[in-house]
Write a structure and sequence with these properties.
Layout lengths: L17 H4 L9 E4 L3 H11 L6 E4 L2 H10 L4 E5 L7 H9 L9 E5 L5 H10 L3 E4 L4 H37 L1 H10 L3 E5 L5 E4 L1 H7 L3 H4 L13 H15 L9 E6 L5 E13 L2 E10 L1 H29 L4 E6 L4 E4 L1 H7 L3 H4 L13 H12 L6 E8 L5 E12 L5 E10 L1 H26 L8 H16 L3 H10 L12 H4 L7 H18 L5 H12 L20 H15 L11 H10 L7 H13 L1
Parallel strand pairs: 1-2, 1-3, 3-4, 4-5
Antiparallel strand pairs: 6-7, 6-10, 8-9, 9-10, 11-12, 11-15, 13-14, 14-15
Helix pairs in contact: 3-4, 4-5, 6-7, 16-17, 16-21, 16-23, 17-20, 19-20, 20-21, 21-22
Length: about 625
């Protein structure tokens, strides 16, 4: 049900004078903003400020009607849902007034597009919708389009008013009519019932490059581009039918004109008919719109580019299968996609404004912060690293991360773009595979050691002592753990040595000793080619644990620090354990005798630093 007219008996709206609203005296046409939310009005006015149009903002439909009584507007931005009087009701009352019957109304709503609402809106007089959240570029584009439509319609109305004046003048005086015709700024062409040009004013002659006598009696088709003629005739017929309803002048047509020299240009033609002396003439009011058409084409291309950019953004960011996060310079999260929400079990609201490091595993904070610092300090390209995040449910998520800076025109870091790939399952499978391979090789090593040690504990004791020595030296904890697992495989190559040689009680022949020496290279070959760090360390240790500090060892005669530290450590642990335990070819030595032997070989067989660490570990033991 429509509200009663709220403007009855009211004074003119105090915020606007009619001349300003209509864009007279050089002023730009005014825009009316109707919204009961003051914050929305303020934001809309700020968005429109760049266009330079006077903006009047009111808080209700009643105030909108008062403003329209005071002045005319090029476009009205109307909120749909307002108390007391909805936007639809206000629009119907606005349409009922003659001075605002043709003013474009754009409805603004936070609700989604709905067929019933859309039907109601257009029935109320809407020409377009804007849906929240409102983008400034979209708002300005729609307002500019409506203002342009308003300006063109009024310009053509003035031209048609001049034509009407011409009609009246012709009845009174042909001389007076000619003067009016020639002094109209727009091009005017009159065409008789047969479609032949009767007259063309000076402005039209300037547009098309013809003298009046050159086109008199020629078909109108002579000034319309040939490949646009059929479309023009069809549109003109539709326009004439619409104009005959009595609702005012028909909308001007856009087509392509053809000059005398054959060049083509965009034109706009407002068509009307008049009776003169019992004859019917068609009058075309013509304007060169080349600049406007070029501007429209630029806007069209820009719109296409924006749509492509939005589509690309949706594909690359929103719909990306891996987590994507955009943070500000301060590390606070500004935007996340669905993948990261599902990965870490949080909603976008939880992420918004939080620091990405808040979701990082405490043990990985330092490395993650270092990557961010590197990007902020100007590191080129993306920073790639692996880290761990904490899921909302408490699980640890292992992730592969790419961190990239988003820079402004001054090449300053504006934002950070983080891509997060969940590799938890991948790492779990890798660890399981590594563990399976390790267990298989450990069993082979234990089987090989049974040749010399019936208990099969030699490899484990060597591992334990190796870790004690390495810890005394100061190796990192992560390397100690790898050494603990890799050291038992140092003699895995003995599986390839003859059992009779390994169990021989007497002194080995040179040939037999050469066979024993092959266990280093055989073990390295068995462990070679693995992508896992653990097995790579085991390969290195198996190959080098019989090298001597003075270069007299085997298999390659490495010396000094050319021997990997793990090979130097396991060499001491291996010899000490072999001396202090029974072997088929010898009895067990006392610990004191074994320590003395190790000490005596410092600088020859063994690295002095490792020997010192061994002695320290022994004293602590």
């Amino acid at each position: 049900m429509l509200h009663e007219d709220p403007t009855a008996g009211r004074a003119e709206h105090p915020l606007l004078q009619p001349a300003d609203a209509q864009g007279e005296n050089g002023a730009l046409p005014a825009v009316l903003v109707v919204d009961d939310d003051a914050g929305n009005r303020l934001a809309l006015c700020a968005m429109l400020d760049r266009l330079g149009h006077p903006v009047v903002d009111v808080d209700s439909g009643r105030e909108a009607l008062r403003a329209i009584e005071a002045g005319q507007f090029a476009v009205i931005l109307m909120a749909v849902h307002m108390p007391a009087m909805s936007g639809y009701e206000a629009a119907k009352l606005i349409r009922a007034r003659s001075r605002s019957a043709a003013t474009p109304i754009i409805f603004m709503t936070a609700y989604g597009r709905d067929e019933i609402e859309t039907s109601t809106a257009y029935a109320s007089g809407a020409v377009d919708f804007i849906f929240a959240p409102i983008a400034a570029d979209v708002l300005r584009a729609k307002v500019t389009e409506c203002v342009d439509l308003f300006t063109r319609a009024h310009a053509h109305k003035r031209s048609l008013d001049s034509v009407t004046a011409l009609n009246a003048s012709l009845r009174d005086s042909e001389v007076r009519a000619e003067a009016v015709l020639q002094n109209v700024a727009d091009g005017i062409v009159t065409v008789d019932e047969q479609g032949l040009i009767e007259a063309m004013n000076r402005a039209a002659q300037g547009l098309f490059g013809y003298q009046r006598a050159e086109v008199a009696g020629q078909p109108l088709q002579s000034v319309i581009a040939h490949d646009h003629w059929d479309d023009f005739i069809e549109a003109a017929a539709v326009n004439r039918a619409l104009g005959s309803t009595g609702d005012g002048p028909a909308e001007p047509l856009e087509t392509v004109g053809r000059r005398k020299d054959g060049s083509q240009f965009a034109i706009e033609i407002g068509i009307s008919e008049m009776q003169i002396g019992g004859r019917t003439f068609t009058v075309g009011v013509i304007r060169d719109i080349t600049e406007r058409a070029e501007r429209a084409e630029r806007e069209r291309r820009r719109g296409q580019a924006l749509r492509r950019e939005a589509q690309l953004d949706r594909i690359v960011f929103e719909e990306a299968p891996i987590g994507s996060v955009i943070t500000g310079r301060d590390g606070r999260i500004e935007r996340v996609n669905l993948a990261i929400c599902m990965m870490l079990g949080h909603t976008p609201e939880v992420f918004s404004g939080a620091h990405l490091l808040e979701f990082t595993h405490p043990e990985d904070l330092q490395d993650s912060a270092a990557a961010v610092a590197a990007v902020m300090d100007g590191a080129l390209g993306a920073q790639h690293f692996e880290t761990r995040y904490l899921h909302a449910g408490g699980q640890v998520i292992e992730a592969r991360v790419a961190l990239t800076a988003i820079r402004d025109d001054a090449d300053e870091v504006k934002q950070l773009f983080t891509q997060v790939e969940d590799v938890t399952a991948e790492h779990r499978a890798s660890r399981e595979l590594e563990q399976a391979q390790f267990e298989m090789l450990a069993r082979l090593a234990a089987a090989a050691e049974l040749h010399n040690d019936d208990t099969g504990q030699h490899t484990l004791r060597v591992a334990e002592l190796s870790v004690a020595i390495a810890r005394t030296i100061g190796l990192p904890e992560a390397q100690l753990e790898l050494l603990r697992l890799a050291a038992p495989l140092h003699d895995v190559g003995k599986i390839a040595v003859s059992d009779s040689v390994l169990r021989k009680r007497g002194k080995l022949t040179d040939e037999e000793f050469e066979q024993v020496k092959t266990h280093t290279t055989a073990g390295a070959q068995m462990l070679a080619g693995s992508p896992f760090e653990l097995l790579a360390l085991a390969e290195q240790t198996a190959l080098t644990h019989h090298e001597h500090w003075d270069g007299s060892g085997y298999p390659t005669g490495l010396a000094g620090e050319a021997i990997p530290i793990t090979g130097r450590i396991v060499a001491v642990a291996d010899v000490f354990d072999a001396l202090t335990h029974h072997r088929p070819y010898k009895a067990a030595w006392s610990t004191a005798d074994a320590v003395t032997e190790i000490t005596s070989q410092s600088g020859r067989h063994f690295d002095p630093l490792v020997v010192e660490a061994f002695l320290t570990a022994q004293r602590a033991h």
